[in-house]
Amino acid sequence: MKNYLLLLTALLSLSNCQKDPAPPLLALPGQYYSANEIVAQPIRMYTQQGEVLNDALIEDFIHREYEPSGFLRTNQAIGDSLLLLTIPEKGPATLVSKTFYPTDFAQAQVSGQTHDSFTLTRVDSIQLLLPTTPPLRCAVLGDQIEKALPSRRCVPIVNQIGYSQLCWLKPAYAIGIRDGQLYLPALNYLVKSAAPGSRCLFSRGSRWNLFNPALRNQLLAGDTLVVQINEVALLKK
Question: Fewest CB atoms within 10 Å of the CB: 11, 99, 110, 140?
């Protein structure tokens, strides 16, 4: 009987043990404006064998394959550029980009919030024709580098030489969260494939997005990926 009571007490104790609740997600509603400086972050390089940690080797690859100014080594002033992000309690967020040129305005839906990021998907869409020829290896990798992917709706087309589909894309952006503060990631990347029959080089810069880490496990022999995610603080008014 005594052993039974001890066992019952132990079971009751275990049932009362609960994991600490996850911290709540950051409350996003508010108005934010971009800081006047872009903060340079480390440049990362990946191959099928894993991450390359030799800085000299990374710099040599960039200078040999790409215009080196595309990646930052030091912080840089943004100048007269300004981004205003307004997230209401309900309804779509608004993005207003002010530069030397006329203001660019867009509406976007907030989704996919985690403790370290969320996604803005634009309400408007753009049209894109997809070619009939299969994409090069670099384009395949390039489509998977960014964490926040556009929503896509495609229909087949006929009698359009060289193209097989007409697609409507809604661009998506990732906004980072760290220590309760928002930041705008500026993703730069360089992709090279030396695979036989698919040699190519592809690069993009200053994408408002984060890196998709799952891509590192999909690199094949001959693939090289260089990534840098610089940051612009988004200050709450």
Answer: 11
